[in-house]
Design a protein that fits this description.
Layout (H helix, E strand, L loop, with lengths): L3 E4 L5 H9 L3 E4 L7 H7 L5 E4 L7 H6 L5 E4 L9 H6 L3 E4 L5 H17 L1 H9 L17 E5 L3 H12 L3 E5 L5 H6 L3 E2 L2 H7 L2 E4 L13 H5 L5 E5 L8 H10 L2 E6 L18 E3 L8 H21 L13 H24 L4 E10 L6 H13 L11 H7 L3 E7 L7 E9 L3 E8 L5 E6 L2 E6 L3 E8 L4 H11 L4 E8 L5 E8 L5 H9 L3 E8 L4
Parallel strand pairs: 1-2, 1-3, 3-4, 4-5, 6-7, 6-9, 7-8, 9-10, 10-11, 11-12, 13-14
Antiparallel strand pairs: 13-15, 15-16, 16-17, 17-18, 19-21, 19-22, 20-21
Helix pairs in contact: 1-12, 5-7, 13-14, 14-15, 16-17
Bound molecules: nicotinamide-adenine-dinucleotide and (2R)-2-hydroxypentanedioic acid.
Length: 531
């Protein structure tokens, strides 16, 4: 059945066409962005949800989203999506980080001009037949200092355009390297320095716990008299009430805001103050940007739903379509290794140590890690998937470490996982053969060569005669057909293991019969997600 996608915001129709062309059923219902009850009622029918900023993806919506696999944000900011709840539900959240950056940077520059020359007010006055030439005295941008808070994709473009306007650009961004700042020809400064020196301040940071209220009353008070402040990033970055007071007192000469702490903004402390330019979150509102983000989000979501390729996800490592194809059997292997360990472990896990050897070490390890951890965590909660597993493992305080090494043995590459609990360490290794089939190649340090089947039985015993007979006879007596049988041992008469790949689930009475022989230290039936 074709995957189903719901578009619940005003997305360019181009997105609808892409979904259809890729064979995805799509419902275009932009009115649902403002109707959370209706959205909650129908979200359970969809595999994908494509949105802009009106739709709020809350835990309540996610609770009802039983088939949802991916949320695609046609834009950059994902603060309208509860990403933690999405991750817990196993839903990938992706955005389109580059599609509207030029447009938004241009809006910030336009706002800077507008506030420097009071263009909106002058326009209203002129339309009214007044000719107030002396009222609208502006300031030049040339030679002025622009303080950019957040010099990422959009901030970086703003820096570039501002330098073209012959402004002196200083930037505060703790994650901006000195070398990159030099390439961008901007001076990297501390926040206090920026506040003291800037004639114009423009914000281009995401809204996080660190950036919320970054222009607080205290920080606004540190700004240069006559400063003009532009916010085309996110509401909540600036204390709007404190800014309004500084505008009234004349300390701040002007402000240009595209974003507000409450949106849609029906009222705001900045409204109706002189020399405050406001736009209704129009930063990304150009035909070009909307086309870009709609096309991009539709392609990314379709790729994921149809091929498993992951691009621009915020809660899952990227996997290209090519990687998804090559890595498919290795991702499966990682899942099987995790599933083996998960089923064998019934005490709290303290650490998961993963070793990637040879060919495996050259792959997308982040994706392999997610699959392996999901294989383990699924045994505790069947709803866990590659998206939610790392988060759930972290919540449980499980330490995860990975090591990679050059090819060290007979196999071109392998993955070995060791799980540490309070009582023991347990390990298993596997590889993928040239036929594309995952194999278990070592358990507890004992070499084996076991094909992975949907239903398996694992036993440990002392290496004594009669084991094969007991296993064969018990399975036969219980009507279980053995497809494959693998044995391994440390040494003659030493510790031994057996893995049986059987055609149907092994009944409990067969397992009890094996235990009753007294030949085995451990008897465990295992299930793997083999198609
Ligand atoms: N108005 C609109 O319509 C519109 C459109 C697109 C994007 N946006 C918003 O613009 C903002 C920037 O987007 P972007 O694509 O440039 O993001 P980005 O991730 O490319 O850049 C953000 C920058 O902020 C920096 N940063 C993070 N924490 C910081 C901190 N505590 N102090 C200083 N710098 C910090 C990062 O290092 C990064 O360089 C986001 O909030 C986004 O949601 C708004
Ligand atoms: O979709 C929009 O109009 C706003 C987009 C913008 O805020 C973003 O973060 O990309």
């Amino acid at each position: 059945m074709a995957p189903k996608v719901l578009i619940s915001d005003e997305l360019s129709e181009a997105a609808v066409q892409i979904f259809r062309d890729r064979g995805i059923d799509v419902d275009f219902m932009p009115e649902l962005g403002k109707d959370k009850e209706k959205l909650a009622e129908i979200i359970g029918r969809y595999d994908g949800l494509a949105i802009r900023s009106a739709t709020k993806v809350t835990p309540t919506i996610l609770e009802r989203a039983d088939n949802l696999k991916v949320i695609g944000r046609a834009g950059i900011g994902t603060d309208n999506i509860d990403k933690e709840a999405a991750s817990k539900k196993g839903v990938i959240v992706m955005n389109t980080p580059f599609g509207n950056m030029i447009t938004t940077a241009e809006h910030a520059i336009a706002m800077m001009f507008a506030v420097a020359r009071q263009i909106p007010e002058a326009s209203v006055s002129t339309h009214a037949g007044k000719w107030e030439k002396s009222k609208f005295m502006g300031v030049e941008l040339t030679g002025k200092t622009l303080g950019v808070i957040g010099a990422g994709n959009i901030g970086g473009i703003v820096c570039d355009r501002a330098r073209g306007l012959k402004m002196k650009v200083i930037a505060y961004d703790p994650f901006l390297g000195e070398e990159k700042a030099q390439q961008m020809q901007v001076e990297k400064v501390e926040l206090d320095d920026l506040l003291k020196r800037a004639d114009f301040i423009t914000l281009h940071v995401p809204l996080t716990d660190q950036t919320r209220n970054i222009l607080s009353a205290e920080n606004l008070a540190k700004t240069k008299k006559g400063v003009r402040i532009i916010n085309c990033a996110r509401g909540g970055l600036v204390d709007e009430a404190a800014l309004a007071e500084l505008l009234k007192s004349g300390h701040v000469a002007g402000a240009a805001f595209d974003v507000f702490s409450v949106e849609p903004a029906k009222e705001n402390p900045l409204f109706n103050l002189p020399n405050v330019v406001c736009t209704p979150h129009l930063g990304a509102a150009t035909t070009e940007a909307q086309e870009n983000v709609a096309l991009q989000v539709a392609e990314q979501m379709a790729d994921y739903l149809l091929t498993g390729a992951v691009q621009n996800a915020l809660n899952m490592p990227s996997v290209t379509a090519e990687e998804a194809k090559i890595m498919g059997p290795w991702i499966k292997l990682a899942d099987y290794l995790g599933a083996f360990i998960g089923q064998m472990t019934d005490e709290p896990i303290k650490a998961i140590n993963i070793l990637y050897d040879g060919y495996a070490a050259e792959m997308n390890l982040a994706a392999l890690n997610c699959s392996l951890i999901a294989g383990i965590m699924k045994q505790v909660n069947p709803d866990v998937n590659m998206v939610s597993a790392p988060l759930i493992a972290k919540e449980r305080g499980i330490k995860i470490s990975t090591t990679n090494q050059a090819q060290s043995g007979a196999f071109e590459g392998y993955i070995k996982v060791t799980v540490v609990t309070g009582k023991r360490e347990r390990s298993i290794a596997g590889t993928v053969f040239s036929d594309g089939k995952p194999r278990f190649i070592q358990i507890k340090g004992i070499n084996i060569d076991a094909e992975v089947g949907r239903h398996m039985v694992y036993t440990t015993n002392e290496d004594v005669p009669g084991i094969i007979g007991a296993l064969g006879q018990t399975m036969g007596a219980n009507g279980v057909n053995i497809a494959n049988f693998t044995l391994g041992r440390t040494a003659a008469k030493g510790e031994a293991i057996a893995l049986l790949y059987v055609d149907e689930p092994v009944p409990g009475k067969a397992l009890d019969a094996l235990r009753a022989t007294g030949l085995f230290q451990q008897v465990k039936s295992l299930e793997f997600d083999v198609a």
